[in-house]
Amino acid sequence: MKTLARAQDREELLRRLRTVRADSPRRWGLMTAHQMVCHLGDACRMGCGDVRVSDASGFAQRTVIKWIALYLPLKWPPGIPTRPEIDRQIIGVTSGDFAADLAATVSLVEAFAARAGSRDWPVHPIFGRLSESAWMRWGYLHVDHHLRQFGH
């Protein structure tokens, strides 16, 4: 299973992320490529505990859905709703500078991955408490999902 904790998986993901362009067309959803890049940065900030996100978990989300999402060898489907605090359809993009936002997001993915070894992980808003390995798996899958959304 791919994870941000493994250098080769992380580098493959960052290489793909660096190929995103402001005009990359989406395959599904409503976000623009710029909104998606900013959303990924927000998600990394959430995983680092720097952005508080409202809870949307329940028993099913913390057990069965978490296990399916993180450990079954399935691609995440289109249409998974996000929390409003990191929904760039609601809050807009960080700036008008796509290249700067992309570079910032690459750095945020690297910073999120560098948290390996930390004992201070936030509670995931949908999946509840996650181990470090589950956070690293989630991080990989989340970025991969949105890169596939834009054909990268």
How are the secondary structure elements laid out?
Layout: H1 7-17, H2 33-47, H3 59-71, H4 88-91, H5 98-113, H6 132-149
In DSSP terms, counting alpha (H) and pi (I) runs of 4 or more, how many helices?
A: 6
- Oligomeric nature of the chains: single chain
Structural class call reads: mainly alpha
Indicate the low-confidence ranges by residue numbers. none
What is the strand content?
Answer: under 5%
N-to-C order of helices and strands? HHHHHH
Residues in helices, as a percent range = 40-55%
**Shape by Cα distribution:** globular
Give the tally of β-strands: 0
The name of the CATH topology is Four Helix Bundle (Hemerythrin (Met), subunit A)
Quote the distance from N terminus to C terminus: 19 Å
Integer tally of domains: 1
CATH architecture: Up-down Bundle
Mean pLDDT: 94
Q: What Rg do the Cα atoms give?
A: 14 Å
Major beta sheet, specifics?
none
CATH top level label? Mainly Alpha
Features:
152 residues, mainly alpha, Four Helix Bundle (Hemerythrin (Met), subunit A), 0% strand
Question: Could you give a quick summary of the protein structure above?
Answer:
The chain is mainly α.
Description of the molecule:
The protein is built from 6 helices and no strands. It has one domain: Four Helix Bundle (Hemerythrin (Met), subunit A). With 152 residues, it is mainly alpha-helical. The protein is globular, with a radius of gyration of 14 Å.
